[in-house]
Amino acid sequence: MITMPNVAGFGKQQSPKRVAFTFSVSLAIAAGLAFWIARPSRDVRPNVLLITIDTLRADHVGSYGYKEAQTPAIDAIAARGLRFAHATTVAPLTLPAHASLMTGTFPWYHHVRDNGGFYLSDDQETLAKVLRARGYRTGGFVAALCSIVGGVSDRGSTAITMTST
């Protein structure tokens, strides 16, 4: 028999099996705690979903207050995310506006000034490139041909899917 010191009422002799059991449980708890502390932390980065829709009036979308809207998917996303109440564009054309949106620059800087004949150069830093450099997976679903031809959609994205409208 092993005698435990008389600390907090432990003055009785303990059997070797009980001591081994107590030691095993303590070791298991310590190992579990060590694994819990050393576990990889959950990715706390926010998900980013950017939706741009050409020629859609905000006052005809449910999340902007239109009662007869038929936009349940957009409304559900807007309810869980960030929705802008006021937005303006630097250009009234799809390609230059999207080039500015993706680069954070104006058309005079990125040189995309129209939907036809202009391309976003590879040296432009886009939102997709910045996000990929920070470990995000990026991609795009595009219906506007000028956004693909102009190179705005694929600068830094891992996948681009052309959809038809």
For this entry, give a set of tags:
single chain, 165 residues, mainly alpha, 2 domains, two-stranded antiparallel ribbon, two-stranded parallel sheet, 4 strands, 35% helix, disordered C terminus
Would you kindly provide a brief summary of this structure?
The chain has 165 residues and is mainly alpha-helical.
Count of individual beta strands: 4
Number of domains: 2
End-to-end gap? 83 Å
Beta-strand content estimate: 5-15%
* Major sheet attributes: 2 strands, antiparallel
Write out the strand line-up for the largest beta sheet, numbering strands in chain order. Answer: 1-2
Helix percentage range: 25-40%
State the low-pLDDT regions, or none.
Answer: 161-165
Global outline: elongated
Task: Decide which structural class fits the backbone.
Answer: mainly alpha
Count of helical regions = 6
Secondary-structure element series: EEHHHHHEHE
Mean pLDDT score, rounded? Answer: 78
CA-atom Rg in angstroms: 29 Å
